[in-house]
Amino acid sequence: MFLVNPVLEYILNIFNNGEDVDHWYNNLSIDKIKETRELNSYNYDEITYYYEKFKYLELHEQLDSYNIEDDINFEIEENDIISSIANSNDIAFEVTEQCNLNCVYCVYNDFYQGFEKREDRNLDFESAKKLLDFLFKMSEEGNSSYIKELDIGFYGGEPLMNFKLIKKIVDYALSIELKRTNIAFSMTSNCLLIKKYCDFLQKHNFSLLLSLDGDKDSNSYRVLKSGNNPHHIIFGNIQFIKNKYPLFFEKNVQFNVVLHDKNNVNDIYSYFYNNFNKIPSIIELSDAGLKKEKMVEYEKMYRKFDENLISPSMGTNDLELLNPSSIMVTDFIIHNTDNIFTDYNDLLFDIKRKKFPTGTCMPFEKKLFLSSKGLILPCENVPHKFKLGTVDSHGVHINYKEITDLYQNYYKMIFKQCKHCYSQLNCSQCFMQLSDDEYNGKCKMFSSYNDYVSYLSFIQGNIEKKPLLYVRAMCEITIS
Ligand code: SF4
Ligand code: SF4
Fold first, then answer.
1. Which of 328, 360, 389 is the last residue of a domain?
2. Torsion, CA 301, CA 302, CA 306, CA 307, rounded to 10
3. If you count Cβ atoms within 10 Å of the first and of the last residue's Cβ in the chain, which end, N or C, has fewer?
4. What pLDDT is stored for residue 381 in this prediction?
């Protein structure tokens, strides 16, 4: 499975056959090199280099063989799920399905299927309270940190259309005495109502993720029900908060942009940097759940992040890390080094965290998301058929066995592709975001040997061109 230089591969074969590599190397002669098909295009110094590399890997215990077939037997146990819940740093509430925008690319609009039809439902307070009580109890009793940070997030629709519930949940959460859990609040909003509620949001130190696609033209897919582009209202609201609470704006407000055919990466960065001194997150249009008949329209709108170059004249050094090729390098580092720590426990103890195969997180590892209908999901981005539990007037219902079966069964379906895929160790594909066609046909992220060779050459070329990038990625990037 691993791609290595042929000399190193030859040495590893000796090692894996149980032969003595030192003995082989000490008896190596020019004549022997010439006689050996795998080695005869290399000179003695080159072979010595790979022998020393082998010794380094051996010394640092990097030579355990990895058997991909073992992953099919991967078992999630009940305790893994309980531990994920107790240690989860995020709970999020879809407080309403109502929205005052009608974005063309919204997953609940015409382009997509598999997401529950929106019926303008509001989440009820009792359900939110039951899930909070459940999580607080698990967290206080079982989280492995001395003090855990817990973010309580609000989504919609447009969450501020149900501000009454947000306020009730915030008041309730703050009224509970917690010894081992620190609470913070966050919200994703389209900005239309933010001026009205900004005092409350500032008072409770909310982290805000505001959605806007750039200037007026760039924002033309984010329209009101009337079809009009509300850019001027949104821009005015943002300026209002910026002027009224400059420090809050600087520290707590971030922007989220969808990339499409009406904007581009360069203009997006310029717009947010020049107007708000911010560097936004940019996401591509999702194709999870895309209707087949919408494919042509989707392809017209879709723009790939790495087709867009960032203008070097933008000036800020931070942009270097946001360049698409830099993101690929950091992603590679994240998946391929042991130097990534999720908390201080990882630094202090040799904890081997269980990782679900593919890019899917362990159930509830990222968050508990409660939909307005009372479905508990592993995050807001997955179709509702992947519900992992429910909340109703009787309480919280999570059947651990059903969850393990669900994960196991879906993984079995995709495994027939994964076992031939060279992205297996780098995979960032969540199985809940694959279409039925991809289970039966080809996963869009599948990587053949040749794909992977090109990918590795690209990564290596980038690190060679910008050696400081590795250092910056290791020192400055925080994974959330
Ligand atoms: S999309 Fe999948 S991998 Fe990502 S947070 Fe949601 S469940 Fe986890
Ligand atoms: S990219 Fe797709 S096929 Fe490859 S390992 Fe990930 S889920 Fe499996």
1. 328
2. -50
3. C
4. 87
Expressed in angstroms and rounded, the spacing between residue 8 Cα and the centre of ligand 1 is: 36
443: nearest Cα among 431, 456, 453, 455 = 431
- The structure's pTM equals 0.80
Which residue minimizes the CA distance to atom 4 of ligand 2? 446
Q: Which of 295, 328, 361 is the last residue of a domain?
A: 328
Is the CB of residue 360 below 6 angstroms from any atom belonging to ligand 1? yes
User: Is 169 a member of any domain?
Assistant: yes
For ligand 1, whether the C-beta of 378 sits within 6 Å is yes
- Residue 434 amino acid letter: L
Contacts from 451-457 at CB under 8 Å and sequence distance 24+? 451/422, 452/3, 452/422, 452/423, 453/3, 456/3
Give distance in angstroms: CA of 284 to centre of ligand 2.
19
In a domain, 287, yes or no: yes
Q: Are both 14 and 142 inside the same structural domain? A: no
- Residues β-bridged to residue 257: 282
Is the pLDDT reported for residue 20 higher than 80?
A: yes
**Number of domains the chain is built from:** 2
The pLDDT of residue 420: 80
